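Notes to self after the Tuesday call (sharing in case useful).
The group wants a holo model before anyone commits to mutagenesis around the pocket. I volunteered. Ligand is adenosine-5'-triphosphate. Logging inputs and output together so the record is complete.
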Amino acid sequence: MSDNLLDINIRHSLQTANGILPMEVSFSLSKGNILALTGPSGAGKTTLLRQIAGLVNPQSGKISLDQQLWLDTSQDIQIPTRKRNIGFVFQDYALFPHMTVKENLLFALETKGDEKVVDELLDAMGLTQLHGRKPHQLSGGQQQRVALARALVRKPDLLLLDEPFAALDHSMRYQLQNLLLKFHRLYHFTVIIVTHDIGEIFRLADRVMIMNHGKVTQLGSPAEVYTSETDNADDLTLSGEVLSCQKLHGHLLVSALIENKVRQLTLPLDMEPQMLPGNNFTLPYSLDPNRIRLVNNR
Ligand SMILES: Nc1ncnc2c1ncn2[C@@H]1O[C@H](COP(=O)(O)OP(=O)(O)OP(=O)(O)O)[C@@H](O)[C@H]1O
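Result:
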């Protein structure tokens, strides 16, 4: 066990539609790093987050954060979820529908009476005006801001995010990414974020880990992992907002806002209906023949 690290070494049997798939994952992450976890559907990404959170127990292995041992099957140690200082955000928000925004945050507080943190978070997330609303009275982006605020209430050591912004349009996703980066700078928590979006990976992540069939197939910086020789881009998407689109030499020439930067894409003609100015798009990254290289612009 090392200082200032998330250390994971687990084995499990995934029960897939095609039978048992052995899962074996071993990696370390420095404190304060943001790890993007990606790979095809069924690779075991969500299961790994659930194991780290203590919601699923791996059949064998160890998980530790800093000096705290969260799991060691050889010593029968399994620290329950509530004692691992973790925040979660999932794609579907998972707010309590009968509670107001503020009540959702207060519920996440461990000790009553520390309401100041809740008010500060509501303010920082631009939610103060909405504190009395129920989730169904909020937009998707607002609900996800509440979910992020709720995950941060207990100042977690580790934030686990499972495709948290995937359902949001481009500008909302960008705003939420900014909020995540802002709080990351303030609190220095470690983050694991499941994402398929190449722009999001380059914008947020220090490290990228690709999983396939229950195994880690690659781990490195975004620039190392997405080099032109070893292009692991098959499962990735590119999302943005169309600014303009014109036909040129049998292709579409599209100007788009991607991670708040204007970029040019050359796309097949049959994508014209999706490429109307103002539209948000998500397309397979492999479709872009120029493979736009997004620099880490944090
Ligand atoms: N607790 C569990 N024990 C064993 N197998 C599980 C468990 N939970 C899920 N599985 C199986 O593990 C496989 C991987 O599922 P998982 O949801 O982790 O994949 P994923 O990489 O997150 O996929 P997606 O990108 O589609 O969300 C699936 O076949 C699923 O049925």
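Two things stood out.
The CA atoms of residues 50 and 56 lie 6 Å apart.
Residues 14-16, 41-47, 56 surround adenosine-5'-triphosphate (CB under 6 Å).
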